[in-house]
Amino acid sequence: MFRRRTDLPLSERLRELVWPRSGWRRAFQYGWRRVWRLSGTPHAIAVGVAAGAFASFTPLIGFHFMLGFFVAWVFRGNLIASAFGTFVGNPITFPFIWIATYDLGRLILNAGKPTNLQPQALSSDLFFTHALDKLWPIIGPMMLGGILIGVPCSVLIYFLVRPAVETYQSKRRAALAKRRAKGRRGTHEGETARD
């Protein structure tokens, strides 16, 4: 139902991930409108978006949706909104997020740069028992930095999303009430004309 008539080639699909055909501005506007139209209280939707945004700051690539769902569930947020919140982390923002979280975590842990990270040694050790020993000097600081940057960013996103959703929902309720009143008026006028 929602598929294209002709599938895009792999190269075109990869390009769409980095730069959407309609542009990032339109993709961002579409995402925001989808969030506003979700059913639920403004608080639950804002918590969901904030939970997804928080998950984007962690180095758990591939698990952002699940982590966003879990955090939204714990704080009683909207699970679908958390999926939209994970789009804070995207191909454009990830390099900045990773550098910021790694540098902050390393600064707090007072750790030096990891040693023994030659590409050959790292790739061969990843499949053996010492994989965590090799990755922890990178993942540990990124996790700590991700939490420390993700929490304030998600709080900020909560306070940006909640009033936007409240405004949209109140305007939508007013428009629906106006439409209903207009429909009733038309019905009453039709009955009066028949009498």
Would you write up a description of this structure?
Helix 3 crosses helix 5 and helix 6 crosses helix 8. This protein has eight helices and no strands. The chain is mainly alpha-helical. The protein has one domain. The model has no long low-confidence stretch (mean pLDDT 79).
What is the domain tally? Answer: 1
Q: How can the largest sheet be summarized? A: none
Beta-strand content estimate? under 5%
Instruction: Sum up the overall morphology in one term.
Output: globular
Mean pLDDT: 79
Low-confidence segments, given as residue ranges, are: none
Helix percentage range: over 70%
Number of β-strand runs = 0
Order of helices and strands: HHHHHHHH
User: What does the radius of gyration come to?
Assistant: 23 Å
- Termini separation comes to 48 Å
Helix count, DSSP H or I runs of 4 or more residues: 8
- Class based on secondary structure composition and strand pairing: mainly alpha
